């Protein structure tokens, strides 16, 4: 990062800017045309959890989701970074059971629920977390369902072992979906290990936004003459299925009080959005045929990318009345202290909040 | 922030920089001479909790600490942003009792302990937090002790009411100490409200580093011919008392696993360091007569300012053997995922880690 990305969000206190967040964003349509952008949208960045919906495409395309009777809520969970609330953990457990396995199959690791209220409730009951409480357990349960389907009549548990490894058949399918939807050559990409132990590939914002525009429209998810027409239709149908699922079950994608959930509860299918660790946010706008991708330079906390996404949505979506006020409000949030006193504001920068 | 501050810390994953943190730092001696710096050290920033030791000077200078028999641990608590562990809450409660009041006197507000293990232990016992668990309760207990002392033979509770307000006699003393030690005219400074409801004044890093150099040496804390010799001696003694207290009771300043505590447990009186919200860190180096002040542009998480401070300490302090390795290790920390796999590193930038 030799030249600076622009300031996209600022924390105000006492009438001055206390802290500021630089970053970049891209808005692309499904043809790949750049609609608008700011900052360096060509630098490869790790999208982290923001690409879960792309990683979930094989689950649906392959027929595994239908085979195991996965519900809307469970498909939404497959795209989720959830708060570990009871609906999340029981949902993931049910997915595994429907595929004939259990929590032992998960390789994401265990952690206390992201939602602190749920943490304390568990502690009060003397419970400790399992892999089901891991915020990625829905995504991993989806991988496990895909693996059980791919195992065919063979030993599912044996087939699944090591599914988080890049060269495992399950992960190869997932990576292929990521490559096809982004149009970015992952063979040359920097690859790291994600929090939940699957590989994460560094992809530019321009390509991530394109992938989300394709999710928005269903177009181009499996591009190229190599793609059989049937596979293409399966991809389009899969994208639509997942978009509908998250719109019908927004509580599953994140949880109580979380931005993704609140936005989708309010706007339904007009927005599918997903946060990723290290300040990443992606969104699909089906009614506009656009995809958005945001990365904050400093990465390490969601507050900045949340107001930036809200600022972009306020600019792009034709909203009215309460919906417009709701989204604008998410781009300019109060900072409240321990006595409930408003002590500052967190705002998307002016350039984002002014009408395009 | 029109021009960019330099990158001071980077988060690495998969062989590339995933996220980066810009900021500024200043190192100053007690005469006010700038030793070294990077970035904009003249922009006023809110130091937040990093100035607690300055705000605690009147507690000692006034004789209140001696009057109420405050121990080393309690004086350290008066400078603390603690994790809400039992030693912290009982320590604050004892300070109040020694001054003849109780938790009702505190105006900082209540919150769950910063330390998540302690949160869960409380939840398991069916307990809910009080103002004693507020990370600032030691500082506020110090303000209350000062107020009880100032109330003289009058009604202490009545006198104390509203002590968090800028114009209250207690807060005027605290602000005067801040002004004298930093040499910055707070009458013209931007003023905000802190998380614990006291005022916070925006002060440039250069002046914050100077204040810490004065804490390091005891010199210049009450500058100017208006300062009576006795008051000057009281200020020098107060600084030394507080430095000793935090060195003898580092567990009180932050708590289990926290950087301030770990550094001071290791290095004793060679470093007095204190973090502040929004990416601020200050440190006094008594053996070198220097003060350090750091502010990360993005502010909102401690990870960056921690490795930056460690990088500066590794450069400045003449350390050997295990001590040197310990401090260098804090400037280059592993990022570990939910399965305990090392997936990246968080590092102070090269410019910080190379020997001066």
How large a portion of the residues of chain A is in β-strands, by DSSP E? 15-25%
Straight-line distance between termini of chain A = 27 Å
Number of strands of chain A: 12
Low-confidence stretches of chain A: none
What kind of sheet is the major sheet of chain A? 8 strands, antiparallel
Largest interface: A-B, 58 and 58 residues
Overall, the morphology of chain A is globular
String of helices and strands of chain A: EEEEHHHHHHHHHEEEHHHHEEEHHEEH
- Mean pLDDT of chain A comes to 93
Radius of gyration of chain A: 20 Å
User: Given the helix and strand composition of chain A, which structural class is it?
Assistant: alpha+beta
Q: Write down the oligomeric state.
A: homodimer
The share of residues in helices of chain A is 40-55%
Helix count of chain A, per DSSP? 16
């Amino acid at each position: 990062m030799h030249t600076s990305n622009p300031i996209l969000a600022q924390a105000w206190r006492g009438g001055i800017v206390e802290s500021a967040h630089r970053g970049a964003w891209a808005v692309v349509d499904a043809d790949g045309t750049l609609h608008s952008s700011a900052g360096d949208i060509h630098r490869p960045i790790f999208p982290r959890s923001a690409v879960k919906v792309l990683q979930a495409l094989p689950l649906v395309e392959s027929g595994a989701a239908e085979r195991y009777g996965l519900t809307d809520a469970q498909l939404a969970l497959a795209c989720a970074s959830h708060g570990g609330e009871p609906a999340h953990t029981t949902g993931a457990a049910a997915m595994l059971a429907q595929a004939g396995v259990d929590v032992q199959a998960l390789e994401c690791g265990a952690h206390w629920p992201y939602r602190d209220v749920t943490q304390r409730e568990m502690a009060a009951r003397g419970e400790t977390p399992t892999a089901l409480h891991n915020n990625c357990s829905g995504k991993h349960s989806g991988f496990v369902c895909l693996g059980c389907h791919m195992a065919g009549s063979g030993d599912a548990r044996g087939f699944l072992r090591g599914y988080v490894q890049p060269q495992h058949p399950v992960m190869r399918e997932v990576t292929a979906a990521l490559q096809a939807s982004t149009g970015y050559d992952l063979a040359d990409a920097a690859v790291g290990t994600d929090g939940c132990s699957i590989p994460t590939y560094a992809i530019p914002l321009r390509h991530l936004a394109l992938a989300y525009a394709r999710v928005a429209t269903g177009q181009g998810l499996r591009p190229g003459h190599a793609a059989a027409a049937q596979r293409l239709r399966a991809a389009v149908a899969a994208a639509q299925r997942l978009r509908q699922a998250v719109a019908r079950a927004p509580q599953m994608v994140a949880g109580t009080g979380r931005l993704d959930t609140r936005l989708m509860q309010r706007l339904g299918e007009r927005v599918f959005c997903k946060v990723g660790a290290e300040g990443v946010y992606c969104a699909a706008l089906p009614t506009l045929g656009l995809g958005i991708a945001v990365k904050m330079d400093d990465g390490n906390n969601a507050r900045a990318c949340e107001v930036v996404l809200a600022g972009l949505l306020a600019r792009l979506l034709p909203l009215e009345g309460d919906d417009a006020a709701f989204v604008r409000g998410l781009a300019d949030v109060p900072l409240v202290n321990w006595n409930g006193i408003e002590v500052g504001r967190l705002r998307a920068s002016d350039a984002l909040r002014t009408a395009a």
